[in-house]
Design goal:
The complex is a heterodimer. Chain A is α/β, with parallel strands linked by helices. Chain A has two domains: 156 residues, 2-Layer Sandwich (Nucleotidyltransferase, domain 5), CATH 3.30.420; 151 residues, Nucleotidyltransferase, domain 5 (2-Layer Sandwich), CATH 3.30.420.40. Chain A contains eleven helices and twelve strands. In chain A, the strands form three sheets. Chain A has a five-stranded mixed beta sheet with strand order 3-2-1-4-5, sandwiched between helices. In chain A, helix 6 crosses helix 8. Chain B is of the alpha+beta class. Chain B has a single domain, classed as Transferase(Phosphotransferase), domain 1 (Orthogonal Bundle). Chain B is built from seven helices and ten strands. The longest helix of chain B is centred in the first third of the chain and has 24 residues. The radius of gyration of chain B is 19 Å and the shape is globular. The chains are: A alpha/beta, B alpha+beta. Chain A: It comes from Pholiota conissans. Chain A: Its cofactor is a divalent metal cation. Chain A: It catalyses: L-threonylcarbamoyladenylate + adenosine(37) in tRNA = N(6)-L-threonylcarbamoyladenosine(37) in tRNA + AMP + H(+). Chain A: It is an enzyme of class 2 (transferase).
Amino acid sequence: MLDSAKNNRQDLVLDSMPILQQTLQQTRSPLTNPECPVLALGLEGSANKLGAGVIRHNPDGSSTVLSNVRHTYITPPGEGFQPRDTALHHREWAFEVIKSSLASAYIVMSDLDCICYTKGPGMGAPLQSIALIARTLSLLHNKPLVGVNHCVGHIEMGREITGAKNPVVLYVSGGNTQVIAYSRQCYRIFGETLDIAVGNCLDRFARILTLSNNPSPGYNIEQEAKRGARLIPLPYTTKGMDVSLSGILSAIEVFTQDKRYRPNGKPQSSEDKDIITPADLCFSLQETVFAMLVEITERAMAHIGSKEVLIVGGVGCNERLQDMMGIMAQERGGQVFATDERFCIDNGIMIAQAGLLSFRMGSTTPIAKSTCTQRFRTDQVNVSWRA
Amino acid sequence: MATTSASMRLISSSTLISQGAEAKVYKGYLTPSGSAVLLKYRFKKTYRHPSLDTTLTKARVAGEARALLKCLRSGVNVPGIRMVDASEGLLGIEWIEGKSVKYLLPSGADDGDGEGEVPVESPSQTLEHFGISVDTLMNLIGIEIAKMHLADIIHGDLTTSNMMVRDPASFTSLDPKVPTELVLIDFGLSYHSTLVEDKAVDLYVLERAFASTHPDSEPMFAGMLAAYEKQVGKEWSALRRRLDEVRLRGRKRSMVG
C-alpha cells in the first residue's frame, strides 16, 4: 500500500511536468459568459455535514452566492459519526435544509437551471441519501442533474472566493489530504497521505482526549493548542511529496498513558514541574502535522514553479495552518489564499459552483447514471471549464 | 550568537547557484587556493517550530552525508564530502565539472514551446565531447546504480538530472576506452535499506523519469538494466520479479475518499 502510493505519486509528478508549462501560457478559458443568469442548487452530504446552497452565475462572468445552509450531525464527545446514523441525520434534515436554502435565496425550485449533488468521494450511506434526494428533486421538478466530485467542489469554491488564478492546492479535511495542481483539464495529485487523512488524525485524537465535537473536534483541538507550550517529539514522516499520519496518532496516544501526563492540565503540587498537559499534546500534534503539510506543499510549489497556494477543506480553516503556510509563501515571494469556515468546511454551495461550471460546459448526469461512489479520485474528473 | 559562525561566513563568500524547496545551493571555496566546493545549505524554515526545525535539519544533513560516505566506501561514484556542519544545516561536497545526463540525451520534441532552456549544442554533439556513445552512457548508469544498491543505499529520487558525467578535460580516466565517469548526485531523499522492494521502486522511479523526460527511452532503459543486471549478480532474479510487480501497481489504485 505504502509503496504503491509512492509509485503513483511519481507517475503523476513526472507525467505532468512538461504539460504544466504549456498550460500556463494559455489563458483563454473555454467557458463563455452565460447569456442570462444561471442558477444551481448544490446538495452536499458526503460526511457528517448536510449542506444546501444556491449560486448564480451572472452574464458579466461574476457569481453570487444566494444561500448557504448547513446542518452538522454532532456526536457526543469521544464518539465518531457512524455511516448509518449520519445517513439518517441527512434524510431527517434534508427537507428543512433545502427549503431554508431556497427561502433565503428568495427563489423557488422552478427558477433553478440544474441540481448538483455530491457523487463522491465520501461515506457510502450518507452519499446514497443525498443522491436519492437529488434524483427525487430532479424528477419532481424536471431539472437536470449534475454529479460533482467533492474535492473538485472544494477547489472551485476556493478559487471563486479567493480569486486565486492557478494555485497549488492543499486540500485538507477529515477524509482527504492532497496537494493538487491543475494541468491540462485535470487536477493532478502531486502528493497525498499514504494512510489516514489529517482531519481524521485530529478528530481521532480529540476523541482520545474526549474533547467536544461541537462545533467540530478540529476547532476544539485548535483552541486547546493555543494554551500548549511544550513540544513533545513526534514522528515526522514526509516521503517526497507524500505524508504518513497514522504513526503520529499512535505515538501521541502513548503520551496519554505517560506518567507525566495530567488529564486535567494542572500540576499535582508546586513540585510537579515536568508535566504533559492535553494542551501540550494538541500543540505538538498541530505543530508537527502542519509542518509536514507545509513542507510537501512547498516542495510541490518549487517543483511546478508556482507562487500561489490555496488551502481548502475543513482543516483549512485552522488559523495556525494558515499562518504557517503564510510564512512559507512569503519566504518564497508568494501568496496564500484561504477561506473561512463557511466555505472551508463542507457545504452545498461548493457543489453548486463546481456543478454549474460543468453544466455550463454542457455536461449533465442522466438519471440512469446518477450514482454515487465512495472512491472517486480528484484526478478522474475532466475539468473542461479551465484553459 | 554574537559572532557569525564559520559556516555562515563561508556561505556569504560563496555564489548562489539555485534554490529549491529544501536548500540553497552555492559554489564556494574552503581555502583561497583550493578547488571549488558545492555547498548545500538547508536554511531555517521559520514556519516550523524552532526545535522541530533544528532536529529535522540536523538529521537530514547528517543522513545525506552518511549515505554519501557509505557510497564512497563502497566505491560508488558520488561527490566526495568536503565539510559537514549539521547544526547549521550545511553540507559541502566536491564540485563536479561536467554535465547532467538530462542534457546529454534527446529530450521531448514538444519542448520547443517551453521556457526556452534548449541547450545550444545538440545532445549527440555533447556526448561526442565526452567521448562516449548513448550505449556506453547507459552502461555506466546501470553499473553505478547497481553498485549503490549493493551497498544497500536507496537513492529515493533517481532521475537523469541527478546524474552527471565528468568533463574529460578535468578528469583522468583509468579506462582508456571511457574517458569520463558517471557520478550520482543529490542524496537528499536517500536512505538505507536491504529490501528488494525498495531497490525495485528506486529503479521504477528512474524508469518513469526516463519515460517522461526522454521520448522513446525504452531501449535506453533496457540497456541500462542489462548493465545493472550484470553488476548486481545473483540478486537480479528477485529484483526483476519485484520490478515487474511494481510496474503493475501504480496506475490502478483508487483511494478511499
